[in-house]
Amino acid sequence: GDSVTQTEGLVTLTEGLPVMLNCTYQSTYSPFLFWYVQHLNEAPKLLLKSFTDNKRPEHQGFHATLHKSSSSFHLQKSSAQLSDSALYYCALSSNYNVLYFGSGTKLTVEP
Amino acid sequence: ETAVFQTPNYHVTQVGNEVSFNCKQTLGHDTMYWYKQDSKKLLKIMFSYNNKQLIVNETVPRRFSPQSSDKAHLNLRIKSVEPEDSAVYLCASSSGGAGDTQYFGPGTRLLVL
Questions:
Q1: Helix/strand/coil percentages in chain A, nearest 5
Q2: For testing the chain A interface, which of B29, B58, B104, B109 should be mutated: the one with the most A CBs within 10 Å?
Q3: Which residues of chain A does B51 touch, with a Cβ-Cβ cutoff of 8 Å?
Q4: What does the CA dihedral A40, B40, A32, B90 come to, rounded to 10 degrees?
Q5: Beta strand residue intervals within chain B, DSSP E
Q6: Are the C-beta atoms of residues A90 and A35 closer than 8 Å to each other?
Q7: Beta-carbon count within 10 A of A57 CB
């Protein structure tokens, strides 16, 4: 079946340092991969999604590259900001377009 | 305003009671979803509807029943709540095409005493 693994439950960084959140997946199809971000007491919102033509999606300084050979879609940003503190979910969709989420990574950026 | 709306924001009830949650989307989408976010923040799909038809039921207990009157509305009824039903219930919608973005509502937080 479809599944997503996020190995880090909690990541704490100092402002200005690079961010990398890991995401690997398993699927019997060729899924679409997503990163959703959820700020405290808010709804999850789309941050990035994979393209079918191997382009690298970017948004708000974040980017992710889909590597089919290693089944990975890691999220990266060159310099963390205080406002990046949130819960980040990696997710995949394949059949019927439902989302299967990883367990989430709580990112805390400190001054 | 085009978005996904959910009511109520918060509901407290006792074990064995029946509850209903409402979801409406004004995005013109054909597909709607219910997800459950538990106390550990795990997010799991419960149901998916396309144009009022049930498409996906992810082995949810039978006390949960979704109801759709039209493609813009998807409600969720829980017949006899259990303590483990305490969670945030998130409604989402999308155009339904492969890889389409899902837009989430603010959620309904349920507390079962």
A1: 5, 50, 50
A2: B104
A3: none
A4: -60
A5: 4-7, 10-13, 19-25, 31-37, 43-50, 53-57, 64-70, 73-78, 87-94, 103-104, 108-112
A6: yes
A7: 18
Residue A71, phi then psi, degrees to nearest 5: 50, 55
Instruction: Give per-residue pLDDT as tens, B59-82.
Output: 899 999 999 999 999 999 999 999
Tell me whether residue A7 is exposed, middle or buried, using C-beta atoms within 10 angstroms of its C-beta: 0 to 12, 13 to 18, 19 or more.
exposed
A-chain residues near B31 (CB < 8 A): 97
B41 touches chain A (CB under 8 A): yes
Residue B37's pLDDT band (cuts 50, 70, 90):
very high
- Alpha helices for A24-96 (secondary structure H): none
Contact across the interface for B48 and A103, Cβ inside 8 Å: no
* Average pLDDT taken over every residue of chain B: 94
With a cut of 90, say whether residue B55 has pLDDT above it: no
What pLDDT shows up at residue A29? 82
Return the beta strands (E) in A1-111 as ranges. Answer: 3-5, 10-14, 19-21, 24-26, 32-38, 45-49, 58-59, 62-64, 75-77, 86-93, 99-101, 105-110
CB-CB under 8 Å, A96 with B43: no
Smallest Cα–Cα separation from A88: which of A69, A71, A75, A72?
A: A75
Tokens representing residue A13 in the block: 């960084």
Separation CA B84–CA B86 (nearest Å): 5
Residue count of chain B, please give it.
113
- The answer to whether residues A49 and A89 touch, using CB atoms and an 8 Å cutoff, is no
